[in-house]
């Protein structure tokens, strides 16, 4: 049997896994969620969710993937033969298709914005222009599709090359680039006139905004941001070497992911406050508000280009991890070559994202269960498949796997001490399943 692919270097493991978690969730969603839900108070709740929910589920996924060394479906079949736990694997194979559907649309928009910014399409424009241009662009049947196809082509280019030559190499280049741009923006932002106000909004908690709905939003955000619940991290961990420390990797990934989300806030809020805009703008914050804000700062051209390059890079390193879940499955279960598996998956994603994109224009009257196609994909993946998957994974590891087996994996067979094992098991068995169940019910609008 051919040797199974792995990540080759320690840096590659971190770059790829952080690449998966740092994405639109950090730079597009986190700032507006924070803006709408109490600034620092939201951040605080978010950090607690990362600690008590995110880290345990991440470690659960790592244990499953690294010990079974197989795709999501095969991992559950290997660890629990003769049972139906591999249903989690099937959910994990379908979820990326839905996430890719809506995620690629937003990534396609950002590519168009890179082009607009680079060709001076944004200079000297009025605030009204940005709002109208965005609505017209997203509703147009063809232009967004061009960028979506290009974005999916970039994904194909990377994933079809394999785990170390494709994913690891791309992450090793793209992630440092992402951090350099982020730091440059951060420094720029701190010199804006509204920096103090922006930072105090981000770091002074308004606890009056915190209610059960906000806590649930923070949990959902932590979950999405850390790429949990659909086997992405099971698949990536199946490429980790036996020497990789699972707890250290999890802590590094969770810390860097949270750090980037906070940095996105540090970049965005000073800019927003400097130009007297409300911090509680919704999803259009980065497509309408920020391009407008950038036009008013010195060096507008370069900052606008860099900002949209940043978002594209963040999105790309996340989508390749989404693709990999399904590609590993098709490759290992149906014996397609990697290239063929990538072609099949990217083709399905093309169809899904075309439908999602058209739901802003020609298909805007078409609804599934009351949602537009775009919102349906987002809802199904983020509110149903991810939380359900996450809950089942933590129940599987917490209740079905042997405690000693988990401890051996976490300590790399006694190499390191797992002094927190009791707390971790408690979180995996009780805290995470109950909390995720609540997110699930609230995602369904049941309370
Ligand atoms: N974590 C990514 C983000 O924050 O944008 C999104 C994501 C990637 C979610 C991979 C789920 C996943 F499996």
From TrEMBL:
Sorted alphabetically, the keyword list is: Membrane, Symport, Transmembrane, Transmembrane helix, Transport
Native species = Coprobacter fastidiosus NSB1 = JCM 33896
Pfam families referenced in this protein's UniProt entry, alphabetically? SNF
- What is the designated name of this protein? Transporter
Q: Does the keyword Glycosyltransferase apply?
A: no
Q: Name one GO cellular component term.
A: membrane
The protein's location, in the record's own words, is: Membrane
Bilayer disposition of the protein: Multi-pass membrane protein
NCBIfam families linked to this entry: Na_transp
Transmembrane regions listed in the UniProt entry:
7-28, 40-64, 85-109, 173-194, 214-239, 251-273, 300-330, 342-360, 366-397, 418-441
Q: Which GO terms describe its molecular function?
A: symporter activity
Family note = Belongs to the sodium:neurotransmitter symporter (SNF) (TC 2.A.22) family.
Highest taxon of source: Bacteria
Q: Does the UniProt entry include the keyword Zinc? A: no
**Main localization category:** membrane
């Amino acid at each position: 049997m051919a040797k199974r692919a792995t990540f080759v270097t320690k840096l590659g493991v971190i770059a790829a896994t952080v690449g998966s978690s740092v994405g639109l969730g950090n730079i597009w969603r986190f700032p507006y969620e924070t803006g709408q839900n109490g600034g620092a108070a939201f951040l605080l709740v978010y950090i607690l969710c990362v600690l008590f929910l995110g880290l345990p589920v991440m470690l659960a996924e790592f244990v499953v993937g690294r010990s079974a060394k197989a795709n999501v479906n095969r991992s559950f079949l290997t660890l629990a033969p003769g049972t139906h736990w591999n249903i989690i694997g099937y959910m994990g194979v379908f979820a990326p298709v839905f996430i890719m559907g809506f995620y690629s649309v937003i990534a396609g928009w950002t590519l168009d914005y890179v082009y607009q910014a680079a060709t001076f399409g944004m200079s000297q424009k009025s605030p009204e222009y940005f709002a109208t241009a965005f609505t017209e662009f997203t509703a147009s049947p063809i232009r967004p599709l061009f960028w979506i196809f290009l974005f999916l082509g970039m994904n194909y280019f990377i994933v079809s090359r394999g785990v170390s030559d494709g994913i690891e190499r791309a992450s090793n280049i793209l992630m440092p680039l992402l951090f350099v741009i982020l730091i440059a923006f951060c420094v720029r932002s701190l010199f804006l006139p509204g920096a103090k106000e922006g930072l105090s909004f981000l770091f002074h908690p308004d606890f009056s905004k915190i209610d059960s709905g906000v806590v649930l939003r923070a949990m959902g955000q932590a979950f999405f941001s850390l790429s949990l619940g659909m086997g992405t991290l099971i698949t990536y961990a199946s490429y980790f070497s036996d020497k990789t420390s699972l707890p250290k990797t999890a802590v590094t990934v969770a810390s860097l992911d949270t750090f980037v989300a906070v940095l996105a806030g540090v970049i965005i809020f000073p800019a927003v406050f400097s130009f007297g805009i409300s911090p509680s703008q919704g999803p259009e914050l980065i497509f309408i508000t920020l391009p407008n804000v950038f036009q008013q700062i010195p060096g507008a051209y370069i900052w606008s280009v860099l900002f949209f390059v940043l978002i594209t890079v963040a999105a790309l390193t996340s989508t390749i991890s989404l693709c990999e879940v399904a590609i590993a499955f098709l490759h290992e279960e149906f014996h397609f070559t990697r290239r063929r598996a990538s072609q099949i998956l990217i083709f399905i994603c093309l169809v899904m994202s075309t439908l999602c994109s058209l739901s802003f224009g020609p298909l805007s009257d078409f609804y599934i269960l009351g949602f537009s196609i775009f919102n349906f994909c987002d809802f199904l993946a983020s509110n149903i498949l991810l939380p359900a998957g996450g809950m089942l994974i933590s129940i599987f590891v917490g209740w079905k796997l042997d405690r000693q087996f988990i401890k051996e994996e976490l300590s790399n067979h006694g190499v390191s001490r797992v002094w927190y094992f009791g707390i971790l098991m408690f979180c995996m068995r009780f805290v995470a399943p109950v909390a995720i169940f609540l997110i699930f019910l609230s995602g369904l609008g049941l309370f």
